[in-house]
Design goal:
Layout: H1 8-15, E1 28-33, E2 40-48, E3 51-60, H2 63-76, H3 81-84, H4 89-95, H5 104-122, E4 127-128, E5 131-132
Antiparallel strand pairs: 1-2, 2-3, 4-5
């Protein structure tokens, strides 16, 4: 079994995740997953004048997946959507004081889910071909297997 070392910040965001939940009257929705390991992340955003005023997440995955989802919501809250699109996997990992190399893909998923929610918001209607995005297939990450 592989030992995975987590920072105190990762453990805090895993044990006490921020912004968990769903925004029913959301302005944007993003869902990404890694088909190899089964991690799935959903991000819901509320936007006013192109500023993210509320953000929630639901994540099915490991401790790193939950911690990175929590952290990306904290980073994006209050940001202009164009600035939030610039949040990278390294930004998320750095704010958590680092992630083990085997878990860096989780920070990519969190940033990708945020970016998908913002793209959905920018489409304005929240629908793709007349169907809610939630019913669409999960965009796949190009990341490798979870460990």
């Amino acid at each position: 079994m592989v030992q995975v070392g987590y920072t105190k910040k990762v453990m805090d965001h895993f044990m006490n995740p921020r912004n968990v939940g769903v925004i029913e009257d959301r302005d944007g929705y993003g869902k990404v997953g890694n088909p190899v390991c089964g991690d799935v992340m959903e991000i819901f955003i509320k936007v006013n004048d192109d500023v993210i005023t509320d953000i929630k997440f639901r994540t099915f995955g490991c401790g790193s997946a939950i911690a990175t989802s929590s952290m990306v919501t904290e980073l994006a809250t209050g940001m202009n959507v164009d600035e939030a699109l610039k949040i990278t996997r390294n930004d998320v990992a750095n704010e958590l004081d680092g992630l083990p190399p085997l878990k860096m893909h989780c920070s990519n998923l969190a940033a990708d889910a945020l970016h998908e929610a913002i793209k959905d918001y920018k489409n304005q209607d929240g629908n793709v071909d007349g169907q809610e995005n939630e019913s669409s297939s999960i965009p796949k990450s190009n990341e490798k297997e979870c460990v």
